[in-house]
Design goal:
Strands 5, 8, 10, 11, 14, 15 and 16 form a 7-stranded mixed beta sheet that branches. The chain is mainly β and 375 residues long. 9% of the residues lie in helices and 39% in strands.
């Protein structure tokens, strides 16, 4: 009743909630492919969604902006809203370049004269180029992760004041395009010190979000325009911590969707598939802190490997390496420190290949494990 005939009006839709609705690292993969001309986004609406800084172009600046929101470093896409709208009756003169002309985001009504037909808009979720956003917040999205891929760390005990490294490996990192998750650690027990790249040499500090580090939360988002594979048990990346109190890794670390949702993207089977990420901690340490011998890493190995063992007290101990016949190839005998100890074994020291055994001996403890040296 308050709309007067003969006046001019403008219909302007808006929606600015849940900026991460439908936005994941997979969108970064697809946008990067478009920027490099490898695989172009196939609709003008996807291109509009990719232009999150509203510059009229799709560039790496858009990738940076989206990743900052995924990592929790920025709360939204400001000054852009979470959604933008295009007049549904508009036809793009050049669908391959929607920015070539002004995009009508409002509907003008001149000389209003009475009841009108419906005015339609197409809603575009900013940052979402694969159409995974749920437009109606009352609907529930499906869980797309059918299976899980393990990231693995080797358990180790740490003493108060000790600085130590946590190496992340995987035995199935094949044709991966990206991943994202929230890494949670016990902030009362540990202090984050540094990040080190590994087999994923494209990954750097820029792939981490440290805004919630005091709460023991690190977000991560890594992607690449081409699928990446690594050797089994390669160190993908390393996190360095300092212990505020003594403990072990099995109690301190986990991967969650606390801030950044837990997803990894693989093209191993031709199509892009989404999985969850699990954190597997190998070699759990007994609560009694008894002497413990861990599996060598990497295993199998070609050049060198590391043997770790835990001693509840400093004492004399021996590491023996022998072949299938029982012939001792090398022996290391000395006094080792309390806590985690490690010995680097070089291929040149062994002068052989194949199945080998290594044994830890203390005054009251003996344990043997098998390892494989390949040519």
């Amino acid at each position: 009743d308050e709309v007067n005939e003969g006046a001019n009006y403008t219909v302007t839709p808006n929606k600015n909630v849940e900026p991460l609705n439908g936005v994941t690292t997979l969108d970064l993969v697809l946008i990067s492919k478009h920027i490099l001309g490898i695989e172009l986004l196939d609709s003008p609406f996807k291109m509009i969604a990719a232009d999150v800084n509203n510059s009229g172009t799709i560039t790496t600046l858009d990738l940076v902006k989206i990743q900052r929101v995924i990592l929790g470093l920025d709360a939204d896409f400001a000054p852009m809203d979470a959604w933008c709208f295009v007049d549904g009756s508009f036809t793009f003169p050049n669908p391959a370049n929607p920015f070539q002309t002004t995009i009508p985001e409002i509907y003008p009504i001149n000389n209003f004269s009475g009841d009108m037909m419906d005015v339609d808009f197409v809603g575009v979720k900013v940052g979402d180029v694969n159409g995974s956003a749920i437009a109606n917040q009352l609907l529930q999205s499906e869980t797309r992760s059918k299976e899980a891929l393990n990231f693995t760390i080797e358990n180790q005990a740490y003493d108060r004041g000790e600085t130590f490294e946590v190496n992340f490996t995987s035995d199935a990192f094949e044709s991966m395009l990206g991943f994202q998750f929230t890494f949670q650690f016990d902030a009362d027990a540990l202090e984050f010190v540094a990040f080190k790249s590994g087999a994923l040499d494209q990954m750097s500090n820029e792939n981490l979000g440290l805004s919630k580090i005091d709460d023991g939360l690190i977000t991560t988002s890594w992607f690449n325009h081409k699928a990446i594979s690594t050797e089994a048990n390669d160190d993908l990346f390393t996190l360095v911590f300092k212990a505020k109190q003594s403990g072990d890794l099995s109690d301190a670390f986990k991967i969650t969707s606390g801030i950044t949702s837990n997803e990894i993207y693989s093209k191993a089977n031709g199509d892009i598939e989404t999985f969850a990420v699990n954190l597997q901690v190998n070699g759990a340490i007994d609560n009694s802190k008894e002497v413990t011998l861990f599996q060598n890493s990497p295993n199998p190995f070609t050049t060198s490997t590391t043997i770790q063992f835990y001693l509840p007290e400093a004492e004399q101990a021996s590491i023996l390496i022998f072949d299938y016949s029982g012939k001792v190839i090398t022996e290391i005998n000395r006094r080792f420190e309390k806590g985690m100890n490690e010995i680097l074994i070089d291929k040149a020291t062994l002068k052989t290949t194949g199945v080998l055994f290594y044994q830890l001996e203390t005054q009251q403890f003996t344990a043997t494990k098998k390892m494989l040296l390949i040519k």
